[in-house]
Write a structure and sequence with these properties.
- The chain is mainly beta.
- It has one helix spanning 2-16; strands spanning 22-39, 42-57, 60-74, 78-97, 102-121, 124-129, 133-146, 149-160, 168-178.
- The protein is elongated, with a radius of gyration of 18 Å.
- The two termini are 26 Å apart.
- The mean pLDDT is 88.
Length: 179
């Protein structure tokens, strides 16, 4: 349901600009890695699922993302299944065009995330959910454009109430198609 809202917002924004000046990009192949705390004092890089769309109008870019992370742990007696979902909206500005193929973008973003934890103990199941929690982000993006192919490498810092470390560093490699 939330993904439907995400898509509706994307298409409303993209319809506000004329079709001749607007470039829409779908990124189906994303590699999203974050440096996160896995237990008290231990950190590691985790991979997140990421689906994103962007619209470009002149030197401006609007990036919409749905990010999901799932983690399971436990044994035969007790199991924990955690699912975190995030919805990002980022504005990027083309700060410098390096040549006809490469550009450097700077941006700010915001969004919300929620988490669901399912605990199974013997035959009992307990589900805990969090409310939508706001986060902010700053990012720098190196983008490659050649005909219909687009590639991006983004470096982002996320600031949110429950994220560890503060801010949380993230690197995303995106490949997609523009039309």
């Amino acid at each position: 349901m939330k993904l439907n809202y995400f898509l509706v917002i994307f298409f409303i924004i993209s319809s506000l600009c004329s079709a001749q000046e607007l470039k829409v990009t779908l990124f189906p192949f994303n590699f999203d890695y974050r440096y996160v705390e896995i237990s008290n004092g231990e950190y590691q890089f985790n991979q997140f699922k990421n689906l994103s769309f962007s619209t470009n109008y002149e030197r401006h870019q609007l990036l919409l993302e749905h990010v999901e992370y799932q983690n399971s742990s436990g044994n035969q007696t007790i199991n924990f299944d955690e699912t975190t979902q995030e919805y990002h909206v980022s504005y990027l500005y083309e700060a410098h065009r390096l040549n006809s193929y490469f550009s450097l973008y700077l941006g700010l973003g915001s969004g919300f995330y929620n988490a669901k934890l399912v605990t199974r103990y013997l035959d009992q199941e307990i589900t805990d959910k969090t409310n939508n929690t706001l986060f902010l982000s700053g990012l720098i993006s190196l983008q490659f454009h050649f005909k219909f192919f687009t590639g991006q490498i983004d470096f982002r810092l996320l600031e949110a109430k429950d994220y560890r470390p503060q801010p949380t560093p993230e690197m995303i490699l995106r490949t997609g198609f523009s039309f």
